[in-house]
Design a protein that fits this description.
CATH architecture: 3-Layer(aba) Sandwich
Largest sheet: 7 strands, mixed
Structural class: alpha/beta
Keywords: ATP-binding, Cytoplasm, Magnesium, Metal-binding, Nucleotide-binding, Transferase, tRNA processing
Strand order of the largest sheet: 1-7-6-2-5-4-3
Number of domains: 1
Number of strands: 7
CATH class: Alpha Beta
Strand content: 15-25%
GO molecular function: ATP binding; metal ion binding; transferase activity
Organism: Sphingomonas adhaesiva
Helix content: 10-25%
Number of helices: 4
CATH superfamily: P-loop containing nucleotide triphosphate hydrolases
Shape: globular
CATH topology: Rossmann fold
Order of helices and strands: EHEHEEHEEEH
Distance between the termini: 7 Å
Subcellular location: Cytoplasm
Family: Belongs to the TsaE family.
Length: 147
């Protein structure tokens, strides 16, 4: 899927927001500046967040909860995680009972950490646009757009 600019990336995130439920994991892969945070900002804005969501690079986990958003969400950036064993200290998986997770740099959690996640991969193109590819497991097939 082609995404012409940041606005298109945020708009696609906004399209995902109504489909998101507690227990969902959406992984956001791609290089620096590929659109991961822009997509997450679109999701969070559509869930009701009034200010622009900061990148959670330094905090690692940025929680959002009602009434700030309609659904509890953890926006997670694992860029600074060096060892998958560090994941246990973050308590992320326990949050799945009542929250959705938006996870940037999911590969840092170790292979197969979230096997049922909607796995989105953003690719920057030479013209400044983005290309999005994905893997949608069975739980997402009816919810995620196929084109």
């Amino acid at each position: 899927m082609a995404l012409a600019d940041v606005a298109a990336t945020e708009a696609l995130g906004a399209r995902l927001a109504p489909m998101l439920r507690a227990g969902d994991v959406v992984t956001l892969s791609g290089g620096l500046g590929a659109g991961k945070t822009s997509f997450a900002r679109g999701v969070l804005a559509a869930l009701g967040l009034e200010e622009e969501a900061p990148s959670p690079t330094f905090a690692i986990v940025q929680p959002y909860a009602p009434p700030e958003v309609r659904l509890p969400v953890l926006h997670i950036d694992l860029y600074r995680i060096d060892d998958p064993r560090e994941m246990d200290e973050l308590g992320i998986d326990e949050a799945l009972a009542d929250s959705a997770l938006l996870v940037e740099w999911p590969e840092r959690a170790g292979a197969g950490h979230w096997p049922d996640a909607l796995a989105l991969t953003f690719h920057a193109t030479p013209d400044g646009a983005r290309r999005l590819t994905w893997t949608a497991p069975a739980a997402w097939e009816a919810r995620w757009p196929s084109r």
